[in-house]
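Hey, resending since the last one bounced:
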Amino acid sequence: MKGCARDHDNAVQGVKRAALPFTRLQRSGHPNGGSPEDARNPPPGRQVGPLLGTRSRCELPWRRDESSQPRKGRCSRPDDAGRGTRGCTRPVTVEAPTAAAPPLEKRRALEVAKAATLETKLAVVGLGVVSLHVFDDSFLQREPGTAAVDHLLSGLVPLAVLVGTALLYHRLRPGLRATLAVVLGVLGIVIGGSEAAYYGPKEGLSGDDYTGLLAVAGGLLLVGVGAATLWRTRRRDDAIAWRYTRRVLLGTASVLVAFFVVFPLALSYGFTHIARTETAQGNLGAQYTAVAFDASDGLRLKGWFVPSTNGATVIVFPGRKGTQKHARMLVRHGYGVLVFDRRGEGESEGDPNALGWGFDRDLKGAVAFLRGRPDVDPNRIGGLGLSVGGEALLQTAAETRDLKAVVSDGAGSRSVREDTVHMRLAKVPEIVVSGVMTAGMAVFSNQPPPPNLKRLAGEIGPTPVFFIYAERGAGGEDNNPDYYEAKHGPKQIWKIATSHTHGLSARPKEYDRRVIGFFDRSLRAG
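The structure tokens again:
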């Protein structure tokens, strides 16, 4: 190979000598003039023979082959005499490198761009349809007795999220786009379908139920777009072990987001948009009169009233349907009874709220209505509340002295404020869910959460309170001993071995004796 090295050096010198005539021609303006660079780098596709002034023992490797095979043109075979190499006289073709991407890669890039454009268009359509229903529900098809200004928070916040997502969608990373599409799609299905599914079979579709069905379709479209984006953009260029580990982690995160974010937000929307329908008639144990009165904030509420025969009257709350059995118990003992639909329920005006936020305003209106009647003694008005009704009565008793006795059966928690009464590590998941649901309730109900019941119990003052709670109660019902301890003045407490607000059904005689005895001592004595 030493001979090849010498040939290589001679070839280099030959290139330099060959460049001289080209340089002279160029300087003299000859049309065939060229430069040394042209001599060293001939045009693509031009065949180059043996260099001038060189020996034909070796060819210069004009183009380097990166493969493991011997380079073309290199002297690798010995000659017949076993010395050096055979003469290499094959011409070398110089190929120009190309910077263009392979056709397959171009097609893939175009496919990705087209898929992203289609994905964005479909996502914007889905978000737009859901936004249409939110606007219709909040500002056009409002509940009776409400105005557009009452729904600023519940309308503008979701609209800002939906419109902002639509505007920024094409700029987001695929994973974030898919997550937002799925989450907002599920919420769109809930927002659009909850009222239509609940009220439709009972009363037929009306009002914003039609845009709600469109929102369901938009939500399904968003879920489909999100799922397709996740599948299309999944990574397959990494190690298999890390790939499936990452997918398991992402799947676990998705479940956590669904449980701790999507689920409580969906509940909070349903709690502020769905309530009992109209109760046509009831059985209160005596003839009743249909009445109507205003809540303290002006909403018109409707209910039934049975006059008293013993001089005392009790408000049984909430609603006209689930309170009838307790109303009959009181009527049997001569008590006057008022039952009425809470706001947003039945024939009453306003937006519904399943957790009882704002029910103290309903009760204040009911007390004012009774105090204005000539057949009611204003100093002998009490209240019996079940579940959220008991919570609302505790708040009302803390805010007014017009209630002279309160029975709270099944009071629990209305927000994260009551859920944090007993803090322990095992309650952390419950508190996280409660916190997200409280935030959702605040947005969808357009009001802040009510005060902590434990604090309110300490502000009730001299009004007698009877706390009743069940062993197998609802959320926060085990807080009743804390409410009882915080209460000053006359009080008593009873824990029943039953489920939530089923004391009268499980222990009818004892329940009758304890509750009626409490009202007799508080409202009829003296």
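The CA atoms of residues 48 and 92 lie 6 Å apart.

Sorry for the duplicate.
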